[in-house]
């Protein structure tokens, strides 16, 4: 590739809202075999809302919501914001919280008015020795609907199942189709629960799903995809995505995401619209073909 043609390609990209931080990325993208995509905030809006709350026998719905929202008011996770907003809409005032702790990729816990409250994934509950099988049917249904089920333990007792749903961006289905039309496989990497991830992948026609990945595990998944498919492009927006963006042959960060993701990426997409990904690959193909 001549420096001039690369410069022209980079200029075109900029007009399309695709910023190449490295010229090499423009040359590498055309040979991508698989596009691996973070789910939350990349395929979806990253703005979940609380959709369901079911309490175990003997627990009061409003009291549990109050306790859960109180703990979540100390968390920065989008799930936390969804729960706090739901409590606010019901006019609930949140009590003070002590001993707050965040267990990355699993959940949160704290003491609320002297009572231990823990909120998180089924894996988190399993690790705490809390049996969630009482909600198995509900969890299965929620997961199949593409919602994320979470559990609450109050004083060590299973108290509720809560679900949040994060809408798929309206631009995502067409972007996935365009990637398929370019002959690429699309893989989803997420920390979310497996059933939920499968439901969303099914809706979008995604080829490969790796779910329940801990934040530090995404890099390992990118390595495995490289070994399986060949050249990998990874798209992400979060702090968790930074190492995977660096590990991929081409890392593309969503410009509306975190600064750390953008700093780790080879390409920054100005908008959250994933159509920019097939556009960037098509631009790479066009640029490199012109040189031959
Ligand atoms: P992702 O961003 O892909 O959803 P995370 O690693 O941030 O992945 O979270 C993985 C899972 O950990 C969530 O689906 C949820 O079950 C649990 N979790 C993380 N943070 C919280 C929180 N603040 N409250 C409840 N559950 C949480
Ligand atoms: Mg994300």
UniProtKB/TrEMBL annotation:
Compartments it resides in: Cell membrane; Endomembrane system
Source organism, top-level taxon: Bacteria
Family named by the database record: Belongs to the cation transport ATPase (P-type) (TC 3.A.3) family. Type IB subfamily.
Protein name as catalogued: Au+-exporting ATPase
Organism of origin: Nitrosomonas eutropha
Organism ancestry: Bacteria, Pseudomonadati, Pseudomonadota, Betaproteobacteria, Nitrosomonadales
Residues of the full protein shown: 475 to 766 of 829
